[in-house]
């Protein structure tokens, strides 16, 4: 249990992840679901960024020709975050488009009401 | 003294004095100051409101009359409790894990191993990119980045399927979309146009700068492309579709996207093929620090920038009026 | 390096490139491009398979100029090549089988987008099969998810939007859990490529450090991919998603998309986490329980269902339960059975979904039992195909379903305490399968007065008939000549370690 008191960033990231995920799953409102999704993804990026940080070092852009690994932070998590952000942009856009279509079809953003209307259509 | 000036009338000082007194309005007749006349929309607008608002009210009323909502309310409580329990469980699990992870900012953590070291120490000579992250995502791990561009591509295809309204197939919803757009579009708003005149060139030039300097300073295709895309969106908001579509219509967006992705595909195929077969590649890192250095990275950054800018722009237009 | 060794890379790039180029083509050209691409992928994968079986060892292919811990890599062994062959074959047959429906149900201006989605789905499946890099796997999982969502809502009706939304929500939770699992794994190993990560993990296990994170990683990755592939308690999106889209899309979704994730999970178990530590974490037991429950509950839900397409979709839930039960046995034989069932379920389910489309066509487009009476007499090819598919699902000898069940039962004998449970559940599930599939087959052949459906003549489409016959032959072929396939699976699994 040694590093619980020092890993503030990771703790925040994990809590945000859970908040986002429970919003994504348990919120009935579609827009709030999408907000939850974005919180969840950002939390993972926060986690990655925290993993990449090393105390007292600078961003991985070569300055003054210094090519010593002990001078820069880890560049891998930054690359992963970049990739992840693009993925989450695409997914959010798709979810928004689905929400627009559902609103046009059922005139509500509440997933429970949509399900009820669907069931009524079936009967 | 100034009153003797024969051109005093209509001079700036005169206009200013009258503006202070309140009998001159500098933007009269140049800007839309009142809500649009009802005749502009007429019956169409009423029909639109009916379609989207009145109808929905009827729906919900009927639904509550039938008492179906009771079922939902009964389950909601249970659902909330269940959700809270699951969330707390996952949170505890992850917090427990975090407490066993290496300390924050620890230079001896497992991830600071030979991989990161080589990226930093030999990245400059192997890829030619001063920005190590760019060198990493566009050279060492270029396959990931190609997949990532394809994620954007497939998402824009899905949004096209969902939101594009085709003229020939559904005239009704096309009309609704147009009306929807006209309703929200600020028509010839002077403030917006003046600001856009100033900001749009700045944003686009800055975006191009960020894209082109992706390998020698912070930035790159994704961030630069997003800046260019937002510049285009601002221009569209200020000047409307008719002007924007002169240079950014569906054909242009498609051609740019396909061209950029095709170049990316061929360039990376070449380097994957030569790399895996241990063939000599004609691509050299060049002099680090120059704009035209770092082998293919600068061109790949341009491609990525084009794809991202086009995708952002087409997302916006699709959401706004169902067509690029 | 032999030229054949480039073929898997060509397959992936080819399918991505055909997707890109289809964006500026019209629907017809995009269709030809797709067909040509899948055929090419099939031929190239067959060549790869014969090469790998010939040499008897796996190889890695650098994606770039940098070797293992630094650059991206793909890895090709017998199992990967076999999966690529079957996935492209099933993809080809499914698209041919539902060609007329695609032409009718997808708007003309959106046909090229539909084929783009199929192309990218193929690319992402191939990448998931071949990848040797965990983050590449994540990126292609997302492509797979988005493309599958596009296939679900391609008909653009309210109901398909709802099912696409439910699919997306479940999938996003799954990928979120997978991604955070990946992040934790990166933070304790420092590697994203599978082979170096495994080496570091072996050292970690040896010195007993990071035990808690390792266990949580196993849980997160398994649950994430389990949710995405529709494991029992997370299956709620399956019936809607498979039930209402166009038949080719249903066939592709049920037989390929979810299987790609399961294959990736098996790959991660063997190539990263080390199957022994997965067994010692008791995760396999949990998978076993969920798989067993899924087998029963999926079948029960299928019996209750009146819509035949939804019924088949619920049967997919049960079949995914079989696969997870096989993994959950915790033995190599169980995993071999699961891998064989991935292939054989793909063959069976695509056949069933395609033949159902032929049957509903001659029944006013309705798919409830009442309307389907006598449909097998009206459309003889589809009726025969459905019968073969059903018999295969039940486990009739000479068909592929029998071999799967036999392998599961045989694998259970060595699984110790799980043996009795596995056997009992297999028996119950077979009985339940028989109940609902035989009921459907009997309904299909119950004669009805000619007048009720006279207006609906069978639309003869040679290409669909050929595809259905091809699928029937695939089912029989896998049932009769299963030994070579099983041998390749066993050899490929041995190469994984």
UniProtKB/TrEMBL annotation, chain A:
Query: Superkingdom, according to UniProt?
Result: Bacteria
Localization (cell): Cell membrane
Provide one Gene Ontology cellular component. plasma membrane
Q: Which residues form a coiled coil?
A: none
Where do the TM regions start and end? Answer: 12-31, 80-103
Q: Which of UniProt's keywords are assigned here?
A: Cell membrane, Membrane, Transmembrane, Transmembrane helix
- What is its membrane topology? Multi-pass membrane protein
Q: Which InterPro entries match?
A: CPA3_antiporter_subunitC (IPR050601), NUOK/Mnh_C1-like (IPR039428)
Cited Gene3D superfamilies: 1.10.287.3510
Family to which the UniProt record says this protein belongs: Belongs to the CPA3 antiporters (TC 2.A.63) subunit C family.
* Identification of the protein by name: Cation:proton antiporter
Instruction: Tell me the organism.
Output: Coprococcus catus
Automatic annotation (TrEMBL), chain B:
In what residue span(s) does the MrpA C-terminal/MbhE domain sit? Answer: 109-164
The UniProt keyword set, sorted, is:
Cell membrane, Membrane, Transmembrane, Transmembrane helix
| Residues passing through the membrane, by range | 78-98, 146-165, 195-216, 222-241, 253-271, 291-316
On the tree of life, the source organism's domain of life is: Bacteria
Is Lyase among this UniProt entry's keywords?
no
Which stretches make up the Na+/H+ antiporter MnhB subunit-related protein domain? 191-313
Topological category with respect to the lipid bilayer? Multi-pass membrane protein
Q: Name one GO cellular component term.
A: plasma membrane
One Pfam family in the UniProt entry: MbhE
Question: Which cellular compartments is it found in?
Answer: Cell membrane
Q: InterPro entries under this entry?
A: CPA3_antiporter_subunitB, MnhB, MrpA_C/MbhE
Q: Does the keyword Transcription apply?
A: no
- Give the family this protein belongs to, as stated in its UniProt record: Belongs to the CPA3 antiporters (TC 2.A.63) subunit B family.
Q: What is this protein called?
A: Multisubunit Na+/H+ antiporter, MnhB subunit
**Which species does this protein come from?**
Coprococcus catus GD/7
From TrEMBL, chain C:
How is this protein named in the record? Formate hydrogenlyase subunit 3/Multisubunit Na+/H+ antiporter, MnhD subunit
Q: How does it sit in the membrane?
A: Multi-pass membrane protein
| Pfam families registered for this protein in UniProt | Proton_antipo_M (PF00361)
The top of its lineage is: Bacteria, Bacillati, Bacillota, Clostridia, Lachnospirales
Localization (cell): Cell membrane; Membrane
Homology family: Belongs to the CPA3 antiporters (TC 2.A.63) subunit D family.
GO cellular component, alphabetical, reads: plasma membrane
Q: Give the species.
A: Coprococcus catus GD/7
| Domain NADH:quinone oxidoreductase/Mrp antiporter transmembrane span(s) in chain numbering | 132-425
Per UniProt, which keywords does this protein have? Cell membrane, Lyase, Membrane, Transmembrane, Transmembrane helix
Which GO MF terms does the UniProt record name?
Answer: lyase activity
Where is the chain membrane-spanning?
6-25, 32-53, 81-100, 112-131, 137-155, 167-188, 208-227, 248-270, 282-303, 323-343, 381-408, 420-445, 465-486
Protein origin, superkingdom: Bacteria
């Amino acid at each position: 249990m040694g590093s619980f008191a020092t890993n503030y960033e990771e703790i925040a990231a994990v809590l945000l992840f859970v908040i986002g995920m429970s919003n994504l799953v348990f919120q009935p409102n579609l827009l709030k679901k999408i907000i939850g999704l974005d919180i969840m993804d950002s939390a993972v990026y926060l986690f990655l960024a925290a993993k990449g940080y090393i105390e007292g070092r600078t961003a991985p852009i070569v300055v003054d020709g210094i090519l010593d690994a002990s001078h820069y932070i880890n560049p891998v998590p930054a690359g992963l975050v970049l990739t992840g952000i693009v993925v989450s942009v695409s997914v959010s856009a798709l979810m928004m488009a689905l929400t627009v279509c559902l609103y046009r079809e059922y005139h509500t953003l509440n997933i429970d009401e949509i399900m009820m209307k669907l069931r009524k259509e079936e009967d | 003294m100034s009153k003797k000036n024969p051109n005093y009338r209509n001079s700036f000082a005169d206009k200013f004095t009258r503006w202070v007194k309140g009998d001159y309005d500098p933007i009269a007749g140049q800007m839309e100051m009142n809500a649009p006349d009802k005749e502009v929309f007429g019956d169409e607008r009423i029909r639109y409101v009916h379609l989207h608002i009145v109808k929905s009210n009827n729906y919900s009323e009927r639904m509550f009359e039938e008492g179906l909502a009771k079922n939902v309310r009964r389950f909601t409580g249970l659902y909330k409790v269940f959700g809270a329990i699951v969330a707390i469980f996952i949170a505890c699990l992850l917090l427990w894990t975090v407490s066993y992870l290496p300390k924050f900012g620890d230079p001896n953590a497992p991830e600071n191993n030979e991989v990161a070291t080589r990226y930093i120490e030999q990245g400059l000579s192997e890829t030619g990119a001063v920005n190590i992250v760019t060198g990493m995502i566009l050279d060492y791990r270029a396959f990931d980045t190609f997949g990532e561009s394809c994620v954007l591509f497939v998402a824009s295809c899905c949004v096209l399927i969902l939101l594009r309204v085709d003229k020939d197939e559904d005239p009704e919803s096309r009309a609704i979309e147009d009306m929807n757009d006209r309703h929200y579009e600020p028509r010839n708003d002077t403030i917006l146009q003046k600001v856009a005149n100033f900001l749009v060139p700045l944003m686009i030039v800055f975006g191009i700068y960020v894209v082109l300097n992706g390998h020698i300073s912070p930035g790159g295709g994704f961030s630069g492309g997003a800046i260019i895309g937002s510049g285009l969106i601002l221009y569209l908001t200020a000047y409307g579709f008719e002007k924007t579509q002169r240079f950014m219509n569906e054909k242009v967006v498609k051609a740019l996207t396909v061209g950029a992705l095709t170049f990316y595909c061929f360039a990376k195929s070449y380097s994957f093929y030569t790399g895996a077969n241990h063939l000599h590649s004609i691509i050299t890192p060049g002099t680090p620090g120059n704009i035209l250095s770092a082998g293919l990275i600068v061109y790949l950054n341009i491609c990525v920038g084009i794809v991202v800018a086009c995708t952002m722009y087409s997302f916006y237009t699709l959401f706004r009026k169902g067509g690029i | 390096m032999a030229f054949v060794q480039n073929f898997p890379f060509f397959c992936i790039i080819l399918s991505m490139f055909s997707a890109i180029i289809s964006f500026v083509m019209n629907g017809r050209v995009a269709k030809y491009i797709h067909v040509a691409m899948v055929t090419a992928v099939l031929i190239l994968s067959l060549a790869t398979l014969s090469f790998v079986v010939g040499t008897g060892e796996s190889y890695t292919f650098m994606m770039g100029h940098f070797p293992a811990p630094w650059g991206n890599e793909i890895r090709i062994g017998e199992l990967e090549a076999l999966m690529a062959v079957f996935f492209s074959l099933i993809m080809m047959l499914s698209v041919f089988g539902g060609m007329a429906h695609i032409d009718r149900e997808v708007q003309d201006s959106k046909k090229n987008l539909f084929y783009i989605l199929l192309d990218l789905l193929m690319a992402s499946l191939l990448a998931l099969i071949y990848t040797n890099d965990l983050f590449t796997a994540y990126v292609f999982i997302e492509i797979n998810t988005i493309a599958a969502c596009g296939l679900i809502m391609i008909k653009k009706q309210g109901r398909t939007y709802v099912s696409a939304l439910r699919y997306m929500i479940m999938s996003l939770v799954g990928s979120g859990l997978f991604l955070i699992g990946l992040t934790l794994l990166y933070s304790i190993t420092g590697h994203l490529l599978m082979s170096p990560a495994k080496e570091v993990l072996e050292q970690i296990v040896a010195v007993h450090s990071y035990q808690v994170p390792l266990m949580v990683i196993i849980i997160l990755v398994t649950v994430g991919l389990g949710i995405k592939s529709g494991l029992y308690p997370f299956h709620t999106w399956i019936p809607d998603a498979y039930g209402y889209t166009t038949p080719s899309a249903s066939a592709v979704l049920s037989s390929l998309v979810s299987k790609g994730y399961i294959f990736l999970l098996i790959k991660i178990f063997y190539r990263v986490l080390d199957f022994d530590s997965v067994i010692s974490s008791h995760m396999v037991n949990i998978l076993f329980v969920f798989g067993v429950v899924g087998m029963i509950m999926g079948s029960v839900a299928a019996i209750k269902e009146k819509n035949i397409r939804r019924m088949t979709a619920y049967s997919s839930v049960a079949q995914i339960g079989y696969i997870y039960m096989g993994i959950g046995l915790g033995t190599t034989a169980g995993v071999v059975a699961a891998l064989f069932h991935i292939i054989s379920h793909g063959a069976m389910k695509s056949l069933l979904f395609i033949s159902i489309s032929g049957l509903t066509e001659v029944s006013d487009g309705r798919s409830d039992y009442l309307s389907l009476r006598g449909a097998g007499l009206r459309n003889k090819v589809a009726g025969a195909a459905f019968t073969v598919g059903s018999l295969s699902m039940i486990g009739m000898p000479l068909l592929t379903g029998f071999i799967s069940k036999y392998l599961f039962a045989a694998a259970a004998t060595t699984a110790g305490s799980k043996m009795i449970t596995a056997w009992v559940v297999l028996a119950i599930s077979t009985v339940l399968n028989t109940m609902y599939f035989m009921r459907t087959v009997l309904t299909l052949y119950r004669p009805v007065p000619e007048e009720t459906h006279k207006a609906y003549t069978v639309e003869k489409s040679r290409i669909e008939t050929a595809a259905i016959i091809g699928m029937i032959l695939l089912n029989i072929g896998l049932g009769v000549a299963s030994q070579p396939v099983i041998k390749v699976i066993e050899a490929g699994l041995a190469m994984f370690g």
